[in-house]
């Protein structure tokens, strides 16, 4: 069974990687399109796109519904590959052609999304998106890359076992929504700018957050999700990505939701996406790679590939990342299973965005068409990658202030473990060649330590033959740093974990190292969490630092933080559950609220005691945060609704902007991440523990100084969602909760009558 699942995944990767590669811009001056409407910059994007697609024959419509599209040579429409990846930097993918050496052989490689998310630094995310889109344009202008990218991955990291949690901003839908908003804005060059920089893709719509749990896999899984959870959790990041950030594209997911595969589900693709979220006719839906093919050969949802193609197209999938559309839509039209106007609609949507990307416009008039190699891997891009790598590190334990380490006072530092010489390991997945990769070992040396190193053990092995050398190295040193945890050999696309304990014998080695009684720092890597309970309670484990996947400057960032050159300031973007969690709820249970068979998911609903809480993260200094002025004691619901701007959705209207002051009463200059939660007993039970409603990173607060930060909270953030998916403002008691653990609280009331602020569409009865 496991063997079969692996084979399926391998086949899928192969199909994806072997698609044709082709680039180049249409010639609107001398080519056959010159003087046609699509080249007329004074016309609207949709009129231009429609005029272009009207010229396509049925065969040309059919062949261009694949992601590897041949174009239309007789019209001078170039071939186009729309499968590009840029999860945290330009990544190896069918649509990016890295040179083997020299110019265009690499691009900036930022930390993995889970790591960047831990920084809670939205301005930096905006800047990351901007760097990536600049580098993408440089590749495009050299005919080495396309203009649309399958990023960001914003499925909430619901279960700690998920192999692709590393690709996401974590478990909290508000955090993921803000991540999407800022990252997409950086990628696309603004919120719905007239000229797009590149096109972003919100993925995967919807409810995709497992790979291969026992008994099923992502290609055939049916996620049973209540409308309440769909509205308030699973689609929250998509609401932001599609509606607020105006991403040009959405990817439908492999899984089914309540019986229908997402790429064949008119409720998801029409009612929710186009209807409720306002995904307009100038934006397109792409199927996850081979999801259309799998409608038949994995799911047997339809009798053959022809029906798979027709069902997907009719439901609202516009482009197939794969070849099932191109191979079968011709036959589907002949059999009257679909028609050419539906295909024309699909391509008009995609080409409307291509027009907004300037594809058919004179290059001389477009600043983005002037970007070249000199704008890739700039000093400021390198600095940003380093800054986010450091900001995303989370200090979980620091006994007796063993950190920061002093390079002058530390004689020898022993660096032990399977991440010691990590290079590409630091890049997580969906990465590409980077300008350099600074390993922890290189980072330690550059920081000025005299370093001895030993592997000790691998990520996931019972082999103890390296223990003796590791203990020997530790014994001869003054400080021991263990670098291990997870990597993509145990958490990956196609591979979930089955436990959240430290893999292999790493914990045995750490325990033996601890037995030496030397200062011992544990660097815990990986996108998923591990239960650190033993390390937390062991008095000889002096410090624990969580790192996701820190990217090209990982080693430098880690040692900048270990030595105090940069103070740690990241916060966990996920809950660190005790190991028993995985026995208490199957991965396939999509419910969030606690029940007899579920201890509750995420910090909002978990009824147990986490090893480390969502939002936890220590500092080298002593911060005292509090409300700068006493917030209001009550708000009238009807007045809030009446005062809300009419030109924006009601759930985006602001309840209030709270002023938080943070005083640095310690001795170290540091950033501070302000996290604001709300809890309530208003509306129907059960009530979540609390919910994140606002956050901000305050930069560089000096010793003895204070800084004030504004934290806006929307009506949507204090609303609660009913069983039909509608959000309501309920009168009753609320508390604002500042920081993790709680440092300040403020109670307020909502008064008046309960008021519905969103109108979730009715789901088809099953
Ligand atoms: C486009 O129109 C202009 C002006 O009418 C003409 O000079 C030019 O040859 C035309 N180009 C093509 C490719 O037909
Ligand atoms: C084709 O299908 C449509 C409905 O999708 C139907 O109205 C029409 O009669 C069919 N045409 C033929 C020739 O079967
Ligand atoms: C094509 O199919 C769609 C959806 O089934 C239908 O609404 C439309 O009328 C059809 N168009 C033509 C020209 O048959
Ligand atoms: C590489 O790019 C740089 C910066 O744009 C340029 O000066 C140089 O000529 C390029 N080298 C080659 C071999 O094209
Ligand atoms: C790490 O790399 C350095 C430099 O190449 C080497 O001396 C050291 O033995 C390596 N350590 C491990 C644990 O592989
Ligand atoms: C801690 O270190 C001391 C030596 O300093 C040792 O005696 C003790 O057993 C160690 N404790 C643990 C839990 O490893
Ligand atoms: C919010 O939680 C705190 C404890 O964490 C509690 O004291 C407070 O009463 C709660 N507020 C509401 C409105 O439930």
UniProtKB/TrEMBL annotation:
<dbReference type="Pfam" id="PF01915">
    <property type="entry name" value="Glyco_hydro_3_C"/>
</dbReference>
<feature type="domain" description="Fibronectin type III-like">
    <location>
        <begin position="672"/>
        <end position="742"/>
    </location>
</feature>
<dbReference type="InterPro" id="IPR002772">
    <property type="entry name" value="Glyco_hydro_3_C"/>
</dbReference>
<dbReference type="GO" id="GO:0046556">
    <property type="term" value="F:alpha-L-arabinofuranosidase activity"/>
</dbReference>
<keyword id="KW-0858">Xylan degradation</keyword>
<dbReference type="InterPro" id="IPR001764">
    <property type="entry name" value="Glyco_hydro_3_N"/>
</dbReference>
<keyword id="KW-0326">Glycosidase</keyword>
<dbReference type="GO" id="GO:0045493">
    <property type="term" value="P:xylan catabolic process"/>
</dbReference>
<dbReference type="InterPro" id="IPR036881">
    <property type="entry name" value="Glyco_hydro_3_C_sf"/>
</dbReference>
<dbReference type="InterPro" id="IPR044993">
    <property type="entry name" value="BXL"/>
</dbReference>
<dbReference type="GO" id="GO:0005576">
    <property type="term" value="C:extracellular region"/>
</dbReference>
<keyword id="KW-0119">Carbohydrate metabolism</keyword>
<keyword id="KW-0964">Secreted</keyword>
<comment type="similarity">
    <text>Belongs to the glycosyl hydrolase 3 family.</text>
</comment>
<protein>
    <recommendedName>
        <fullName>xylan 1,4-beta-xylosidase</fullName>
        <ecNumber>3.2.1.37</ecNumber>
    </recommendedName>
</protein>
<keyword id="KW-0325">Glycoprotein</keyword>
<keyword id="KW-0624">Polysaccharide degradation</keyword>
<dbReference type="InterPro" id="IPR013783">
    <property type="entry name" value="Ig-like_fold"/>
</dbReference>
<feature type="signal peptide">
    <location>
        <begin position="1"/>
        <end position="22"/>
    </location>
</feature>
<dbReference type="InterPro" id="IPR036962">
    <property type="entry name" value="Glyco_hydro_3_N_sf"/>
</dbReference>
<dbReference type="GO" id="GO:0031222">
    <property type="term" value="P:arabinan catabolic process"/>
</dbReference>
<dbReference type="GO" id="GO:0009044">
    <property type="term" value="F:xylan 1,4-beta-xylosidase activity"/>
</dbReference>
<dbReference type="InterPro" id="IPR017853">
    <property type="entry name" value="GH"/>
</dbReference>
<comment type="pathway">
    <text>Glycan degradation; xylan degradation.</text>
</comment>
<dbReference type="InterPro" id="IPR026891">
    <property type="entry name" value="Fn3-like"/>
</dbReference>
<dbReference type="Pfam" id="PF14310">
    <property type="entry name" value="Fn3-like"/>
</dbReference>
<dbReference type="Pfam" id="PF00933">
    <property type="entry name" value="Glyco_hydro_3"/>
</dbReference>
<keyword id="KW-0378">Hydrolase</keyword>
<keyword id="KW-0732">Signal</keyword>
